[in-house]
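Risk register update: the risk of archive-format incompatibility is retired. Evidence:
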Amino acid sequence: MNRIEGPKGSEAAWSPRRHGRDGARRDSAEDDGVIRQRVRAPRVRTFVARLPVRADVSPNTVTVAGTIGIIVGAIGFAARGQLHTATVIVAISSRCDLLDGEVARIGGRASRFGALLDSTLDRVADGVILASLTYWLFTTGNDRAAVAALLCLVAGQLVSDVRARA
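Archived output:
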């Protein structure tokens, strides 16, 4: 059987269930009969996530900071029609959403409250982005596009409820 190097030099047997086509190791978790595979974070993201851990910044602080950045980008720039600037700010701030879970895992500070906070602020960020875009489209007279953005806003807010009920 083929063997590959795992984390910190340990060896682990290769199998299609534990490794994808790209060779990235995957962790499996079973929840209500459904097997979900999570790809381990790439090395760059892990390296960046260690910075807040070393500075003793909580994962919840990373989550809130990212959401505040998204709100600033959406309300401060997208609602005024400065879509390029808003896109850059939102894209940079959304990287915090990629990091908060990794910061929690590396720092050993994962919690149910942190997971709830993360998912709640994700919905807030989605809503603010689409609401700002809807506002800008309505004020510029682009009513059809504004209605489409409003429909996206409503549908996006249903995601967590549908997932919870399923």
